[in-house]
Amino acid sequence: MEYEYIIVQSVLTKERGKHGPIHIKPLPNQDPYLETMFVQCSKVLSNDFPVGTKFKIRAKIIHPIGKRSFVSSHYSWPFEVLKD
Hints:
By secondary structure, the protein is mainly β. It has one domain (4-74). Helices cover 5% and strands 37% of the residues. The protein has 1 helix and 6 strands. Strands 1, 2, 3, 4, 5 and 6 form a 6-stranded mixed sheet that branches. The chain is globular. The chain starts with a strand and ends with a strand.
């Protein structure tokens, strides 16, 4: 699968086993990127912007054997902050 641009948003979560309470998730209607997937990306998105901020990032889905699929975007890549 190639990298492509998707829209994600920072959200508060209480899911255990993750780093910190703020996570980045894909917005709905971007199949195959599901809003239940976690996004691995720069911590700047979750640390330096208010919860609920939307971003355009370049990403792809990673399918690790025996584990849950997730979205990955390199931490050094640029991103765009979107306005509502």
